[in-house]
Amino acid sequence: MNNLTIQEIKDWDQKELLQWIQKEKPKLLTDKVLEKFQEAYISGNVFLKHAGDIEFFEVKCKLPPGTSEDLALLAEDLRSNRKPYFL
C-alpha cells in the first residue's frame, strides 16, 4: 500500500486489484470465492467506491458474509490509506 495514490488505485482494472488483494491477504479469495470475485469484475474504482459497504460485496457480488466484510474493511483501509487492520 506504500505510496499508492487514490487515482492510481481507481485506474486499476480487475486483474490489478485482484493481484493487490492476493498480495495483501493471500488466503481471502480462494476456489469458488475467487471465481465469484472474478465474475463480479470489480475494478479499483468500484472497490474504493464501496469501501465499508459489506452489502455490496455480499448481495451484489454474491460473496460469502465473512469475505464481504473483509473486502469492505480492506477497501476502507485502502481508501483512507491507513495501515490494513489485518497486518
Q: Outline, from the CA principal axes?
A: globular
Name of the CATH homologous superfamily: Transcription Factor, Ets-1
CATH class: Mainly Alpha
**Average residue-wise pLDDT:** 90
Query: Structural class given helices, strands, pairing?
Result: mainly alpha
CATH topology title? DNA polymerase, domain 1
Helix content: 55-70%
As residue ranges, the low-confidence spans are none
Largest beta-sheet characterization:
none
Q: Estimate the strand proportion.
A: under 5%
Order of helices and strands: HHHHHH
Distance between the termini: 12 Å
Query: What is the strand tally?
Result: 0
What is the C-alpha radius of gyration, as a whole number of Å? 12 Å
Outline the structure in words.
This protein is mostly helical. It has one domain (6-80): Orthogonal Bundle (DNA polymerase, domain 1). It is built from 6 helices and no strands. The protein has helices at 6-10, 14-24, 31-40, 44-49, 54-60, 65-80. The longest helix has 16 residues, at 65-80. The radius of gyration is 12 Å and the shape is globular. It starts with 5 loop residues before the first helix and ends in a 7-residue tail after the last helix.
Keywords:
DNA polymerase, domain 1; 87 residues; 0% strand; mainly alpha; 6 helices
How would you summarize what this structure contains?
The protein is mainly α. It contains 6 helices and no strands.
Question: How does the SSE layout of this entry go?
Answer:
Layout: H1 6-10, H2 14-24, H3 31-40, H4 44-49, H5 54-60, H6 65-80
